[in-house]
Amino acid sequence: MKPSIELKSVNSFGINACAYELHRADSVSVLCDLWQQAIAKQYPVLLLGSGSNVLFTDNFHGSVILNRIKGIDIQETADSWHIYAGAGENWHQFIEFLLNKSIYGLENLALIPGCVGSAPIQNIGAYGMELKNVCEYVDIVQLDNGEVSRLSTVECEFGYRDSIFKHQYRDNYAIIGVGFKLSKIWTPILAYGDLSQLDRTTITPQKVFNTICATRRSKLPDPEQLGNAGSFFKNPIVSATIAKNIRQDFPNCPQFFQANGHVKLAAGWLIDMCGLKGYQLGGAAVHIHQALVLINQDSATGMDIVNLAAIIRKKVFQRFSVLLEPEVRFMGINGEIDSVECIS
Ligand SMILES: Cc1cc2nc3c(=O)[nH]c(=O)nc-3n(C[C@H](O)[C@H](O)[C@H](O)COP(=O)(O)OP(=O)(O)OC[C@H]3O[C@@H](n4cnc5c(N)ncnc54)[C@H](O)[C@@H]3O)c2cc1C
């Protein structure tokens, strides 16, 4: 049977893939029911929030369930706000909602597409902040029996674009809500990008929020206009020796020293140095201004993007001996596939 339900509108790359079924779950019980019904039909199941971190490499021969569990609850103690948000809340709107209630601390993560429930999965980060800095706990449901449990921040095992939800709790579990702890004393994080130009004496959360939104709008292509999934590759983390060798040949190479002695490199810079900005393959292309963003330039297929990513990985390796790994999750006929293997 050929899948016929279109997924173009539920993935930010705008890939024209199809599935057998597409459902929306607005409660935990509906989510579990839909999952169990699909399993009973022997369909693979794919949970999605907004589809802004996935690449469909093929049609999906299964059931897609969009998590739309909503609801926001706010409690306070003397020094903190404790907020619970349903996994299906829109991430950016959630930040705006809190800002309007004078609850601050998430501004640096403004305008990242996606749902609240997806944010812990890759520990979203931007402008000097990561989700793990504000996450108090994550609630999950075991889909085959409906059992709900709560994981503390430590149990989430957050890392750079990583968490336990990409590993142990990947299959048969869904995130249903996220708890946040935000201090009532606001401490701006202004070390990165355009934020460092702001006047610290007059800074406000709203100014940080506005600056982030304006910067992101000017730098990143809007998926509504040009399909993309943000940064396609993770920034590679290499040994100090490799970093030193690269610096000898490329003195301008941006390098960020990590607490464990390793060094983070900027994947976009490496791609740019290979002269790949604007490079096109089939309907896919490297964004002309942001080398780290691959775009659906002209009715790209998922495989156009995969083939382009493979070329980029090869060229970066030839030049720098560094292997890039995708940040974006690849979805094949039966579910997630190994993205590194796919582009190797
Ligand atoms: C223009 C643009 C800019 C971006 N900028 C950033 C950035 O600055 N920083 C950053 O970190 N990311 C960024 N991203 C990536 C993306 O926005 C984040 O990864 C976001 O958290 C994905 O949310 P989503 O709801 O779209 O997840 P989806 O793409 O729907 O899902 C992502 C993965 O999580 C799984 N999943 C989704 N919901 C659940 C659930 N409830 N339970 C269990 N598993 C689930 C899916 O199966 C999939 O494997 C950007 C993307 C775009 C398009």
UniProtKB/TrEMBL annotation:
Biological-process GO terms, alphabetical: cell division; cell wall organization; peptidoglycan biosynthetic process; regulation of cell shape
Family: Belongs to the MurB family.
Gene3D superfamilies: 3.30.465.10, UDP-N-acetylenolpyruvoylglucosamine reductase, C-terminal domain (3.90.78.10), Uridine Diphospho-n-acetylenolpyruvylglucosamine Reductase, domain 2 (3.30.43.10)
UniProt cross-references to PROSITE patterns, sorted A to Z: FAD_PCMH
Keywords for the protein's UniProt record, in alphabetical order: Cell cycle, Cell division, Cell shape, Cell wall biogenesis/degradation, Cytoplasm, FAD, Flavoprotein, NADP, Oxidoreductase, Peptidoglycan synthesis
Major subcellular site: cytoplasm
Its EC number(s): 1.3.1.98
Pathway annotation: Cell wall biogenesis; peptidoglycan biosynthesis
Known role: Cell wall formation.
Keyword field contains Cell wall biogenesis/degradation: yes
Domain FAD-binding PCMH-type positions: 15-185
Localization annotation: Cytoplasm
Species in which this protein is naturally found: Moellerella wisconsensis ATCC 35017
The protein's required cofactors: FAD
Keyword hit for tRNA processing: no
One Gene Ontology term, aspect cellular component: cytosol
Official protein name in the record: UDP-N-acetylenolpyruvoylglucosamine reductase
Entry's Gene Ontology molecular function annotations: FAD binding; UDP-N-acetylmuramate dehydrogenase activity
Known catalytic reactions: UDP-N-acetyl-alpha-D-muramate + NADP(+) = UDP-N-acetyl-3-O-(1-carboxyvinyl)-alpha-D-glucosamine + NADPH + H(+)
Family annotation (InterPro entries): FAD-bd_PCMH (IPR016166), FAD-bd_PCMH-like_sf (IPR036318), FAD-bd_PCMH_sub1 (IPR016167), FAD-bd_PCMH_sub2 (IPR016169), MurB (IPR003170), MurB_C (IPR011601), MurB_C_sf (IPR036635), Oxid_FAD_bind_N (IPR006094)
Residues at the catalytic site: R161, S231 (proton donor), E327
